[in-house]
Amino acid sequence: MTTGNNSWRTERGEGDVVPEAVPAATTVLVRDGADGIEVLMCRRNSKLAFAGGAWVFPGGRVDPGDWDGDPTDDLRDSRTLDAARRAAVREAAEESGAEVDPSTLVLISHWTPPIEAPKRFATYFFLGPAPTQVAELHADGGEIHEIGWLQPAAAVAARNAGEIDLVPPTYITLEHLSAFATVAEALDHFTHRRPEHFQTHFVRTEGGMVAMYEGDVAYGTDDLDRAGARHRLWMLHDGWRYERTP
Questions:
Q1: Is pTM, for the whole model, over 0.70?
Q2: Whether residues 128 and 220 fall in one domain
Q3: Domain tally for the chain?
Q4: pLDDT tens, residue by residue, 53-74
Q5: What is the DSSP letter of 124?
């Protein structure tokens, strides 16, 4: 996967260094439910500083033990991806009890937070089939206080109804998954598709915020009305909406 430069080493401005973004990994586990595809999600402890109370996929930072040899901060180094895959498997087991076969995981995206963020994680998102022993899944009781299977479209609707909290990468991933009727369809699609790199650019607007990504005509600017292609998440007080030009 091509991810450009090492964005966590970029400078905000002259003499103002961006906080280092910690390498992390997320495991998006899916299964076929009675009414369509379902995804394993976890509610984070509301007291946590990062995404407290939000529903997320199992995941966390890449630990020293996840590396084969000395760690590197180079996103383009294949060892970084390998370490992230190990972290995804480990975090899924720690947070939910899911024992995941690493060979079944498909890299679907990589997310780099905006340079303004006070706490930054450069996160690899992996998609994989849920383990068969679903009855053994459990919340860890520490970082994770609740765990459950949600339909992607239902989770998006619950967020916009004010019933649950989501963060932008989770919301957009759920939007993508809602297009598939079965796990096989989703895995086939992402297996034959190049993983996307999302580097967020936030803009304030009336009624909330807009998160823009590469491919949006206004990416890197504040001109939300500029005519052209769209790739953005409208994060408004009355609801969120993902807009992307085909």
A1: yes
A2: no
A3: 2
A4: 789 899 989 999 999 887 766 6
A5: E
